[in-house]
Amino acid sequence: MKAELLAPAGSIESFYAAVNSGADSVYLGGKFFNARQSSQNFDNEEMKHIVKYAHNKGVKVYVTLNTVLKDNEIIDALNYAVFLYENDVDALIVQDLGLLFLIRKYLPDFPVNISTQAAVYDEYGVKFFEHVNVNKVIMARELSIVELKETAKNTNTDLEVFIHGALCTCYSGQCYMSSFLGGRSGNRGKCAQPCRLSYSFYDKEADREIEDYNTVPLLSLKDFIAGESIYELIEAGIKTFKIEGRMKGPSYTSSVVEYYRQIIDNYYSGNNTDTADLRDKAIQTFSRGYTNGYLKPSKDDEMYAKLSSGIRGENIEEIEEDVKDKAQEFSRFRRNKISFSIELKIGEQAVLKLFDGENTVEVKSEEACESSLRNFVTDEIINDQLSKLGNTIYELDGLEIKKDDGVFIRKSTLNQLRRDAVEILYDKCGRVYDRREIKAFSYNDIFSFNNKKAQPPKLSLKINSIDELKYADNIKVKRLYVPYYLNVEDVKNIKIEEKYLWIPNIVSMADYKFLEKNLRLYEEIFDGVCVNNVGSFYFFRKNSKLKLHCGPFFNIINTFSEELLREMGVDSFTFSVETNIRDMESMMKHSSLSSEIIAHEYVQLMAMKNCPMSMIKNCKNLQDCEKCSYRNKYMLKDRKGVYFNIERQNKLTYIYNSVPLTIIGKAHDFVGTNIEFFFIDTKNTEDAEEIIDALYCEINGVKIPDVLQENKFTRGHYLKNIL
Q1: Contact criterion met (CB below 8 Å) for 340 and 352
Q2: 303 and 27 in contact (C-beta within 8 Å)?
């Protein structure tokens, strides 16, 4: 089967441009619950029209429902999915595990494509979603062709990859920078793009800023172009090629689609049609500079743009003019060819048959044909009336006329026959699936209540070095998290209620080999494992007997996300840092799982494959990071004078918030929610022991002196709503 070219549509003009320029499928969003809320998007009537139009052109429509959802939103999201199901949408693009659970339960035959926001970057992540019967998985943009080929070889689900457009500097779905700096969550479609803002490097050792990089968009990446890699990706087993750009206009959409359409067609036809001009045209519509990204890493491929916004080429006005017709509903491009056959017999109804190569439509006139020696209808008249297809998506490709001598029929009747036949064909081809009607769901239809007995909360602690084992006091701390890369043998003799292995949100295949090698040791030392990604979840579920805890990077903010995980064998979970107390209370009314809240930590805002410090060092090789003196040397400073810690570890870069997220001083508000564990992370925390003592005392009703410095902490979203 031919590889699929998937184009973005953020406006009706971009939609027409995508279809008429050669896209096999389009993806777009409704007015809510999608990751591009700033795009124009489409209301319900527009959505009906789009699906029917696309299907008539042989194009599929995928609708994005790719944000995380709260309990008070998930009914509306499910009912919107029902609307899309009943109106013949080909598939949904979903991030939220709870919505996925409900769709699989109530709309089991509705195809679901897993969003890149789910951060699937290995075969284990794909296998996780195979378990819940998804249609396709959109892979993380950080993968090489070699990695993608290996994943495709070892899995049974179709894989989709991005091939063009803007690149996020952070792994998608793992970025909380916009959320914490501006209150606008990227996971909820409101990203303010703080990665495109200016920063400077601050040298911690020298106590000074690096003047050469003063107020530059240090985190902003170039745009992605993968034209030279398409052949290899097809041969690697990739089924769908996706273009980014729902925020961009029809000239961008059309030009980029044409470029990749030609490349894909060249591959399957064996032709070698030159695409250089098409590439240049695509780049001129928008560019921050272009990179091959991670597909084929090169020492010479500098990915940092050092630009916040893109520029357009000198020929952009000419390109926009050229695209105008393609951005119209009744464009002359990519029209459907149809043939007519008409039979006119005196005294009988006129019969018009329409054929499009697959479907036949037959219509008859209301009145019978008449006889006239002077006003009989000619072939020329018939051809003229049946050719009037200008305001349709069709063009006449053939006409057969059978008529009696002297037969008469009114021009208005011929026009009506043509209109009726075309309308019937359009409606017929616009409906692809035979789907049942489903009544709207209510709160009581899907929610059930749990009478789980409330328990006094306990403290859990994540350490970041073996030296910090001293904080694991058996009286205060009841659960200990230990990162897998530490010497876990040192944990063996620690007396504590529960010991959990900690797996970060990004894990390489080399890490998996290390984990596999040490599984028996982990089972000997630990009670459970905290996983922070669907891939590591699947790995441990398949290979280990350890209890499973889903950490904060699962972005769990509704009841049904935990329900899906519970059915897959999870014992406990941590609320997302984007959850507020009302969300937690709602979830705990329905959940049977043990829960945990981040009570004090410097939140990881980003996890990046790239290393910003490489710009200072002029480093083109990211293989020797563990030996690099730069990896913990610098901080980022924003335009407001706020500092952010940067850490390079295990060939990844982590950026941490400037102040800790904490509930100290407000912990009593959370004690009655039935949350079992209050989590503390020692990362970047100099006064860990004081923090442990303060939180322990507060949750046990003992008032102690304040340990927080004024204006040196945040409550995050815990006590307010999030956009």
Answers
A1: yes
A2: no
Looking at 204-246, which runs of residues are DSSP E strands?
208-209, 223-225, 240-243
CA separation (Å) from 82 to 122, 219, 441?
31, 40, 9
The answer to whether residue 210 sits within a structural domain is no
- What does residue 241 show for φ and ψ, rounded to 5 degrees? -110, 120
Same domain, 247 and 388: no
The structure's pTM equals 0.94
Q: How many domains does the chain have?
A: 3
Contact 114, 94 (CB under 8 A): yes
Give residue 516's domain range.
Answer: 454-699
Question: And the tokens for 654?
Answer: 């982590």
Neighbour-count burial for 248-276, b at 16+ CB within 10 Å, e otherwise: bbbbbbbbbbbbbbbbbebbeeeeeeebe
Is residue 140 within 8 Å of residue 219, measured between CB atoms? no
Q: How far apart are CA 4 and CA 228, in angstroms?
A: 17
Q: Phi/psi of residue 5, each to 5°?
A: -105, 115
End-to-end CA distance of the chain: 42
640 and 545 in one domain?
A: yes
Residue with tokens 């040192």: 490
Kindly report each contact of residues 148-151 with a partner whose C-beta sits within 8 Å and lies 24 or more positions away, as own/partner.
148/233, 148/236, 148/237, 148/238, 149/236, 149/237, 150/123, 150/509, 151/122, 151/123, 151/126
Question: Residues 388-403: pLDDT tens digits?
Answer: 999 999 999 999 999 9
CATH of the domain at 534: 3.20.20.70
| Among 323, 351, 385, residue at a domain's last position | 323
Q: Are strands 677-681 and 661-662 parallel, antiparallel or unpaired?
A: unpaired
299 exposed, middle or buried (CB, 10 Å; 0-12, 13-18, 19+)?
exposed
Q: Which of 29, 23, 461, 424 is nearest to 261 (CA)?
A: 23
704 within domain boundaries: no
pLDDT value for 287: 87
Cβ within 8 Å of residue 717, ≥6 positions away: 179, 183, 577, 578, 579, 580
307 and 407 within one domain: no
Residue 433 CB contacts under 8 Å (≥ 6 apart), including other chains: 88
What are the φ and ψ backbone dihedral angles of 455, each rounded to 5 degrees? -125, 150
- For tokens 């980029």, the residue is 256
**Alpha helices of 610-664 — where are they, by DSSP H?**
614-617
Residues 25, 139 within the same domain: yes
- How many CB atoms within 10 Å of residue 513? 10
Q: Mark 431-460 as b/e (b = at least 16 C-beta within 10 Å).
A: ebeeeeeeeebeeeebeeeeebeeeebbbb
Instruction: Examine the pLDDT at 531 and tell me if it is beyond 80.
Output: yes
Tell whether 186 is covered by a domain: no
Same domain, 563 and 459: yes
Q: Using CA atoms, how far apart are residues 203 and 195, in angstroms rounded to an integer? A: 20
From residue 351, alpha-carbon distances to 408, 428, 610 in Å are 14, 19, 67
> Does 532 share its domain with 504?
yes
Length of the chain: 723
pLDDT value, residue 110: 97
> Are both 351 and 420 inside the same structural domain?
yes
Residue 174 near residue 551, CB atoms below 8 Å: no
pLDDT in tens, 87-146: 999 999 999 999 999 999 999 999 999 999 999 999 999 999 999 999 999 999 999 999
Residues 344 and 314 placed together within one structural domain of the fold: no
Who's near 656: CB < 8 A, 6+ residues apart? Answer: 602, 603, 604, 605, 644, 645, 646, 647, 683, 684
Q: What token pair was written down for 578?
A: 């984007």
CB-based contacts of 506: which residues, under 8 Å, 6+ apart? Answer: 119, 121, 171, 174, 533, 607, 652
Instruction: Classify residue 636: in a domain, yes or no.
Output: yes
The secondary structure of residue 714, as a DSSP letter, is B
